[in-house]
Specification:
This protein starts with 7 loop residues before the first helix and ends in an 11-residue tail after the last helix. The protein has helices at 8-11, 30-39, 42-45, 65-86, 98-107, 116-127, 135-146, 158-164, 187-193, 207-210, 215-238, 244-252, 258-272, 276-289, 317-335, 338-363, 378-384, 391-403, 407-418, and strands at 291-295, 311-315. α4 crosses α11 (215-238). It is globular, with a radius of gyration of 23 Å. It is mostly helical. A two-stranded antiparallel sheet has the order 1-2.
Length: 429
């Protein structure tokens, strides 16, 4: 049975593609192909060694970017099931595709560099002269440029590209943005996602424009919020960063509502009974049940092109407030702890030194001499020194090389370059 929620506009790709288009041997739909292609990429596998909360290797039970992405995907699929069962606007032949949402959830973090958000901030600082760095923009770059080949990436469907596109403002349109933008050279990809439509004057660059997301992107974003707001707390408690005494001191310094105090009391009870993971798992179900589907107000400039812009996700205000409470608690007690701040400082130093070395070799000179130090693999070097590339083009390729590194690969590369006592020939094979 055909799902009439989607049409040719949604399944279109930028380049010709043979996915499920009259090919009797292709048993998968276009969004299943998107999902499958993500799973079988090295970019997805590298998430197993990229920081979620704690640097990779610090503990054996905590989430990595990979396990986080898998959890987000499960929550996303459950949200689709919940909405299909509860929304009068959906039906057996008209529903939000769970494979599409799963693909967006699995892919939403593949653009993140080593060392989590610290790495993202560091690369943005270093790349400011050449267009900045942003994790979501890097995800789009992988999908459309670097995954599988160097011209079309994995050639994703329009709906899948839109499903991960949290931001719709280009870097040059903003004044020194700290984050939340697309790269300047992604205007064509953005134009394809929008079907060539222009943003109305009522949607200037920035948060106002970024708030207009496809329904699948909204589901992915709430699944992401659900996963990390609850699971970061569980990991922080398991690692000893969040204790009853620390929560109490944190709460005393703030004016919490009775409802917020009640949530903390429930957390105290779970900690005392060693039932934190069980409590947080139950709350995931409550966060899923808090979502409902609403109709977008008339007049959305993309509503005539796709059902994906005729609906928006509504979240129960009480659950939304609980989510924000857990985020604040994790940020203050875990991410701002002196232990993690020390590791963040080290991560910033490692990436800064790596970038400086690569910039001197590959960005500043138009072409190095034949005897230059070959730090990057031959295939990367050949792309960097392709005739006609600008300094900004080369900087972006250097940034790609660093961003794809795992935490351990970045640390090991740093040690090879700067630690005189590390690195034998056998280490390099």
């Amino acid at each position: 049975m055909r799902n009439h929620f989607y049409g040719d506009f949604d399944t279109a790709t930028r380049l010709p593609d043979d996915r499920a288009r009259g090919d009797s041997s292709e048993y998968r739909g276009p969004f299943q192909i998107d999902r499958d292609r993500i799973i079988h990429t090295s970019a997805f596998r590298r998430l197993q060694s990229k920081t979620q909360v704690f640097v990779s290797g610090e503990y054996d039970f905590y989430r990595t970017r990979l396990t986080h992405s898998i959890e987000v995907a499960q929550i996303g699929r459950s949200l689709c099931t919940r909405l299909r069962a509860t929304s009068p606007d959906l039906a057996a032949d008209h529903f939000i595709d769970p494979d599409l949402v799963e693909a967006a959830c699995l892919a939403h973090d593949i653009g993140h560099p080593p060392f989590g958000h610290t790495g993202e901030r560091t690369l943005h600082r270093l790349m400011k002269p050449w267009g900045g760095f942003e994790g979501n923009a890097q995800t789009l770059r992988l999908l459309t440029h670097t995954i599988f080949n160097e011209r079309a990436g994995m050639n994703p469907t329009r709906a899948f590209m839109d499903g991960v596109l949290k931001y719709k403002t280009l870097y040059p349109e903003l004044q020194d943005p700290p984050n939340h933008f697309l790269y300047a050279d992604q205007s064509d990809a953005l134009g394809f996602v929008l079907g060539g439509s222009d943003f109305p004057a009522s949607l200037p660059p920035g948060d106002t424009r970024d708030a207009h997301r496809a329904i699948e992107c909204q589901i992915m974003d709430w699944a992401d919020d659900t996963a990390y707001s609850l699971n970061d707390i569980a990991d922080g408690i398991g690692a000893g960063f969040i204790t009853i005494a620390r929560i109490e001191r944190w709460a005393e310094a703030r004016s919490l509502t009775d409802t917020e105090t009640g949530h903390l009391d429930g957390l105290f009870k779970a900690i005392r009974r060693d039932r934190v993971e069980a409590r947080m798992n139950r709350r995931i179900g409550d966060f899923i049940a808090a979502a409902s589907l609403e109709t977008t107000p008339d007049g959305h400039f993309l509503a005539d092109l796709s059902h994906r812009y005729r609906h928006r996700l509504a979240i129960d205000p009480g659950i939304h407030a609980e989510c924000r409470l857990y985020k604040r608690l994790a940020y203050d007690l875990v991410f701002r702890s002196h232990q993690l701040q020390q590791l963040d400082r080290k991560a910033d130093y490692i990436l800064t030194r790596l970038f400086q070395v690569l910039a001197d070799l590959y960005i500043v000179p138009d072409r190095p001499g034949s005897d230059h130090f070959r730090i990057l693999p031959d295939d990367v070097e050949s792309r960097i020194f392709t005739d006609g590339l600008t300094q900004a083009d080369r900087a972006r390729l250097v940034c790609d090389a660093i961003a794809r590194m795992t935490d351990s690969a970045a640390a090991q590369t740093y040690r090879r370059l700067f630690d005189a006592d590390f690195g034998s020939i056998t280490d390099l094979v």
